[in-house]
Amino acid sequence: MSSLPILIVYYSLNGGTRLLARHIAEGVDSVSGCEALLRTVPKVSAVCEAVAADVPDEGSPYATLEELQNCAALALGSPTRFGNMAAPVKYFLDGSSALWLSGSLIGKPACVFTSGSSPHGGQESTLLSMMTPLLHHGMLICGLPYSEAGLSHTTGGGTPYGPSHLARHGEKIALSEHEKQLAFAQGRRLAQMAVKLMKD
Q1: Residue 190's domain is classified under what CATH number?
Q2: Which helix (H) or strand (E) holds 77?
């Protein structure tokens, strides 16, 4: 039996969201029968002539709609942008209308994650903004329960809506131990849910 593909799609400009994605991937890979697929999305440019390479110079490959259609579960990540998801993530989701029409994502589990530079900079509203199109696709939102002790003790990121990272202005990007634990737990929980749904 082939592994269940758990797609992790993120956009990261300064690295915080990418670090969360990697720990989510470790959580996914800790579940037998599941495989994390790390993918990113390209920048959106206001310059009409701007053309990005088909393959990024570094980091994860670009996500495709085919991978989205065929995934067993989805983790979606974005930095905060005025309390909302970043334009590249929104652009990727806006291109998924054909999958909505076909109902390809209905019943699949999904989670969201984010990174922001200030403690009250809109992390939770960013997570909620990413949930909305996933609910329109009929996906099942998988959050973080308070049985994860890190939620009650973190002084950085971490919410019941999904993992987050507090990347303070001007400081070196590094995840706290609680942020790492919560991202790993979210990946594991998402993969476990995918496995259970496949068995039903």
Answers
A1: 3.40.50.360
A2: strand 73-79
